[in-house]
Design goal:
Layout: H1 6-11, E1 19-22, E2 26-30, E3 38-44, H2 59-75, E4 82-85, E5 101-105
Antiparallel strand pairs: 1-2, 2-3, 3-5, 4-5
């Protein structure tokens, strides 16, 4: 856990969040500024600053992150589809330096995203 990381604090229960899913490796919670009717962030409990900072030693964590998405989306009722997004770095739109995956759904998504 990075002591100054808001997402590490959320995963540790130090900051309240509306939980959507959790297991020993991951924590998912509803975004406080949703961009779709359903907008959940999925984070690894292990602190990784961004996808650009992931390495071979993080392969299991990355696999767990991606493999959990379909079950979380189904639990959220996103049976007609959903979008997954990983913002990386400032130009990629990442605002919290902790790897996180967005699950967005509940409406038709359009392309390009922005």
């Amino acid at each position: 856990m990075a002591s100054d990381c808001i997402f590490c604090k959320i995963a540790a229960g130090e900051i309240p969040a509306k939980k959507a899913y959790e297991d020993e490796h991951l924590f998912a919670f509803h975004d406080i500024d949703p961009k779709a009717p359903t907008h959940v962030l999925v984070i690894p409990r292990q602190h990784i600053a961004s996808l650009a900072h992931a390495s071979d030693k993080d392969a299991a964590t990355l696999s767990q992150l991606l493999n959990a998405v379909p079950a979380i989306a189904a639990q959220l009722g996103l049976t007609n589809g959903f979008r997954t997004v990983i913002n990386t770095g400032a130009d990629g739109g990442q605002t919290v330096s902790h790897l996180h995956l967005h699950i967005l759904g509940g409406r038709a998504m359009h392309w390009p995203p922005g």
